[in-house]
């Protein structure tokens, strides 16, 4: 048994609380009608997360023992298009560079057209997937290539927007069929 002094330790908790906006809206009574509706608070309904309170987390399902140990509660804005594009391409180990490196092991020069990169970012925004969704979208586009291309002779492989759209459309159709 080791004693640890936690007085100078900062704990940071994070999570994606999908649907918590409904709990906040219910607490703020944003849909008030009838008598007393003129007493309704002025609420920015487009940015409802700014009104988050500990009781919203509790109604969402977190236990009070955990909530009570979080002295500061805030929220983060979703990443914008420019930030997602940077994440996709700029870091030394970005998703795109990882694919290029993997393909170069089989003497294949992989190139993504700029409009494909924009398409990937647009899909991540459309599906509200954020940065984590970038990899899923890329995986969907690249899965077939990762199996088929190494059996070739090498050379250059260019990923076009039409190819990316075809792969994502096929994936969406297959997913839809499985859901039925």
Concise summary:
This protein is mainly alpha-helical and 180 residues long.
Major pleated sheet: 2 strands, parallel
Mass-distribution shape: elongated
Q: What is the gyration radius calculated from CA atoms?
A: 23 Å
Main sheet strand line-up: 1-2
Low-confidence stretches are none
User: What is the terminal-to-terminal distance?
Assistant: 54 Å
Oligomer: single chain
Helical content (DSSP H or I, runs of 4+): 40-55%
Nearest-integer average pLDDT: 86
Alpha-beta classification: mainly alpha
The sequence of SSEs as H and E is HHHHHEHHEH
Total number of β-strand segments? 2
Approximately how much beta-strand content do the residues carry? 5-15%
Enumerate how many helices there are, as a single number.
Answer: 8
Q: Would you give an account of this structure?
A:
This protein is mainly alpha-helical. It is 50% helix and 6% strand. The protein has a two-stranded parallel ribbon with strand order 1-2. The radius of gyration is 23 Å and the shape is elongated. The N and C termini lie far apart (54 Å).
Question: Which secondary structure elements does this structure contain, and how are they paired or packed?
Answer:
Elements: H1 20-28, H2 54-60, H3 64-67, H4 81-89, H5 95-104, E1 108-112, H6 114-126, H7 130-148, E2 155-159, H8 161-179
Parallel strand pairs: 1-2
Helix pairs in contact: 1-2, 4-6, 5-7, 6-7, 6-8, 7-8
Q: What brief labels describe this structure?
A:
single chain, 8 helices, mainly alpha, 50% helix
